[in-house]
Each structure stands twice: as C-alpha cells, then as structure tokens.
Amino acid sequence: MNLSGFIKPSNLPRLLPTAFLLLVIFTAQFGNKSMAASPIEGRWDITIDVDGKASPSWLEVRHSGTSTLIGQFTGIVGSARPISRVIFKDGKMSFAIPPQWEKGTNDMTVEGTLEGEKLTGTLTTSEGKSYKWKGVRAPSLRRQTAPVWGKPVTLFNGNDMKGWHAEGENQWIAKNGILQSPKSGANLVTETKYDDFKLHIEFRIPKGSNSGVYLRGRYEVQVTDSKGMEPALDQMGAVYGFITPSEMVAKEAGEWNTLDITLIGRFLTLVANGKTVITNQEIPGITGGAIDSNEGEPGPLLIQGDHGPVEYRNIVITPAK
Q1: For the chain, which terminus, N or C, has the lower number of CB atoms within 10 Å?
Q2: What are the residues whose beta carbons fall under 8 Å from the beta carbon of 207, sequence distance 6 or more?
C-alpha cells in the first residue's frame, strides 16, 4: 500500500492525536510491564550444616524481564556461579547449577522454603550428598558517614607470628621480616577482628602459585602469578568471582608486589603496585573459602596458605575508629 498520497503535511494535525493515543495504549499494554518484586529477591547469607560443621555460602536472587528469576550462588568452595533460573512458587524455591570444582558430574541442586525473612532448605551436591542449610537476609553494610581512621597497626613484627594462628597444622615461617609459607598447608588468621579498614600488604609469589587475602575473613582478593595476563575474576587484584580489576599490573614471579586496600562496608578500593585498579566497587557477598557468612560482624584478616608457596611482608592495617 502506498501511503504517500495520504500522509501529507496538511494531514499531520489531524493524524497526530490519533497516533499519540495509539502510542499510549500500546505502552500501557505492552511496553510498560514490570515484574513486581518477588519476596525471594535479594541477597542471602547462608550457613550449610556439613556433618555438624557450619560452612558458609551465599545467594542472590533478582528478576530478569517480566517473569524470570535469576541469580548467583557461592557454595562452600569456588567462586560465585550464575543461576540461569530460580523457581519460586507458594513459598518454595529451587534451582540447579553445574559443578565447578566438585568431583561429581551432576548438577548441584538447592531447594528452600521462605518463611518471613528466613530461608531453610536442602543442598544436594554433584556427588549426591545432601545437607541442610539456613539463610538470613544479608545486611546492606552501607555507611551513613565517612569513617574516621585510627592509628596504623603493624600486624607482622617480622620475627614471629604473634597475633596470628594457623587453621590446622602450621607450615608458616617468620624469618628476616618475611612471613613465608614454603608449601601448601594451613591458612593464617589474625587474632583480632576488624570492621572498616585500610590495609597495606606486600607479597611475593613463585611461578604458577596461588594465594589470597581474605578481608574480614570473607572477601578474597586474589594473589596469583599473573604477569602478562588479561584482568580476570580469578587473577591478581580481583575479588574472586565478583570484581575484575581494570588492568593487570602484576610483576614477574618472584618479585615483590604491593596491595593497598580500603574496605568500607561492602565498598572496596584497591591499589596494586601503585595503580588504582578497583575504585569504590561493591562486593555483593562472600567468596568461596570464607570463614563464615556473618557479613554484619567484624572479621579477621586471613591469608591463604593452602594453594601453594607464597611470602608476605610489611602488613599494616589502619582500622576505622
């Protein structure tokens, strides 16, 4: 149909009201549909009962489009994993995700029941083992005022491990100003817990090794041999599985690297080897290997020692008052 003879400048005043009315009707019926927030949406701090041991986990559920729930999940080990679909009906939730570091080949399945502001349920691993879990809504951790910083505290005196303890059989050695893990073994944890803080820490890592610094014992900043690599969620300077640094500034294996970290609530700024690679980014939840999922509480500094040899020195923390 040729409308060139119909749509003329002289016809526009008559056609515009009709076109506007059709646009309003179309928008009301098709273009302005939004999904009302489901009560399951949000972030959840989860504790899994693994044969009597409390193991931390984390879940986020959000909507996509008009009717689909999606999310991400941090299990006992590994990084946050995407959930392509969360089923929620009549207070019951379920989802499945493929294995990551687990030995089994089946999907991990999670089922839960929402009652008020609490979730309870069962997790079945890729190996077929089932564990009970419970969850509470994660705190926002948004600060109303800027922190007032206290005095810097040296966490490692260069001679011994006073103020630290190993989670298991200790392989760490303190000598000549260096805190060294010569082989895979136990993680090292401070006796003191912290809320908001600024941290300076230096590390040296051999070729192919892996470590990490857990802030409040819950959020792992990756320490890896990453020279020449593209920035990634599992390489140096990343918050494991959540935040990728803007650039890779790692030095050669065997050279000393520096990290200067500011953590206020969930918001992280990270300077690696003098370059700001993360600027006030929100950490959504705990990373795999966290000590617990109690995000509203202060936590220790944890240095990962179970992934290979690594050395640290000049560890100084400035806590908020």
Answers
A1: N
A2: 225, 253, 254
Residue with tokens 């009315």: 21
Give residue 166's Cα distance to chain centre: 24
Cα–Cα distance between 153 and 187 in angstroms, integer? 21
Q: Is 103 left (phi over 0), alpha (psi -120 to 50) or beta?
A: alpha
Over the stretch 132-183, which tens digit does the pLDDT of each residue have? 999 999 999 999 999 999 999 999 999 999 999 999 999 999 999 999 999 9
Provide DSSP, 39-106.
TT-EEEEEEEEETTEEEEEEEEEEEETTTEEEEEEE-SSS--EEES--EEETTEEEEEE--SS-S--S
Domain extents in the chain:
42-137, 153-319
pTM of the model as a whole: 0.88
Among candidate residues 232, 237, 181, the one with its CA nearest the CA of residue 209: 181
Q: Among residues 244, 217, 224, which one has the least CA distance to residue 300?
A: 217
Interstrand relation of 219-224 and 275-282 (parallel, antiparallel or unpaired): unpaired
- The domain defined by 153-319 folds into Jelly Rolls (2.60.120)
Write the CATH number of the domain with boundaries 42-137: 2.40.160.90
